[in-house]
Amino acid sequence: MINKVISVKEAADMVKEGMTVMVGGFLANGTPENIIDALVEKNVKNLTLICNDTGFPDKGVGKMVVNKQFKKMIASHVGTNPETANQMNSGETEVVLTPQGTLAEKIRCGGNGLGGFYTPTGIGTEVAEGKEIKVINGKEYLFETPLRADVALLRASVADKKGNMIFNKTMKNFNPIMATAADLVIVEADKIVEVGEINPEHVMCSGIFVDYIVGGGK
Amino acid sequence: MDPKKVIAKRVAELLHDGDVVNLGIGLPTMVANYIPEGVDVTFQSENGFLGLGPAPKEGEEDWELVNAGAMPSTIVPGGMFFDSATSFSIIRGGHVDATVLGAMEVDEKGNLANYKIPGKMVPGMGGAMDLVVGARTVIIAMVHTQKGKPKILKDCTLPLTAKGQVDIIVTEMALMRVTKDGLVLEELGPEATVEDVVAATEANLIVSPDLKRFGTEFLDQ
What we know:
The structure holds two protein chains of two kinds.
Chain A: E1 5-6, H1 8-13, E2 20-23, H2 33-42, E3 47-50, H3 62-66, E4 70-75, H4 82-89, E5 94-97, H5 100-111, E6 117-119, E7 133-136, E8 139-144, E9 149-160, E10 165-166, H6 175-178, E11 182-193, E12 212-215
Parallel strand pairs in A: 1-12, 2-3, 2-9, 3-4, 4-5, 9-11, 11-12
Antiparallel strand pairs in A: 6-8, 7-8, 9-10
Chain B: H1 3-12, E1 20-23, E2 42-45, E3 49-52, E4 75-81, H2 84-92, E5 98-101, E6 105-107, E7 112-113, H3 128-134, E8 137-141, E9 145-146, E10 149-150, E11 152-153, E12 168-170, E13 174-179, E14 182-188, H4 194-199, E15 205-213
Parallel strand pairs in B: 1-2, 1-5, 5-8, 6-11, 8-12, 14-15
Antiparallel strand pairs in B: 2-3, 3-4, 6-7, 9-10, 12-13, 13-14
């Protein structure tokens, strides 16, 4: 069996300058904090972030924002991290605000072999600017394209050594979707168990999507 | 009289038994405190669950179970957790009966602006753009004016969150409904007169011939 379990440092070393990085979590709930800390320490720069939000200055992906590691951020909400707005206003980073449902679906398309989708979300707003508008059954929709990343950094509550995952409660959010949409998928698991210890009926996301597993702990 | 309580209670009375409802952050969250007896409402939380319950008691917080504002929450019996794509399938797919949101500006055509003030504050739309497009009924719950300045306008001036999606506006002064003829003043708040509402509103108001009053139970509070 391929050994997918690596150290947090090895995981951080796989994230290279200029890469596009998806990070799981919703306002840092379900974000792999240990990998984030290792990336802050490694100080890899010019990354593009795809995440629901930019966390808090001291929590989640927000710590990397404070450390100025992103040249571009694609997110639905940046209001909980004032540093994002500071860097946007100074021109140090570009922020692409994307409606949350559209962001989730763009990532889902990216991982599902689809070329995009038509959504009513954003019609008549700045989000629709420059996008194809199509009338379907008398209703206006705009076209959104898929999103993929070089690497996805995810958090699971439990993972077996093949990477089959369980997410506790609200920590699921973007994690299982992003697992399908990146070339390299690294999961930080609060608990790692042997293959077979998770009942197949309880697996929430398959290990086939996972390349590496890092032991977590909160 | 606490205007926010008056608004939250009136909005709660608009909900029906069996409704699936998404409440925005802030004032809209208070609506959950006033659901009438015998009305069973399922709350959806866009970060990924159905069956949002009250805030946990101090000392019983579970940081693996948070609401869309990242605050510890609870789940009621019959609830379910899911991922963000499923969450917005529920929202965009028309499976949410009502959403209650705050607003920076709302206008007589049902346009809503609540996610950005260019050059000043750009928090982002989060799930609001999907919610106002997908929910069957969009209810705006907000105090009537911003430091005395009207927020209910002829035309929104800020970037829109959605075009023509707002159905009902509830403030401490009035309940208004967006119709094809314009904004109809259907109910007055506990202390307001028609003249007060007109003076505090930039939008044209059509006064309903069947004008009612709500919230008088709050007058002596």
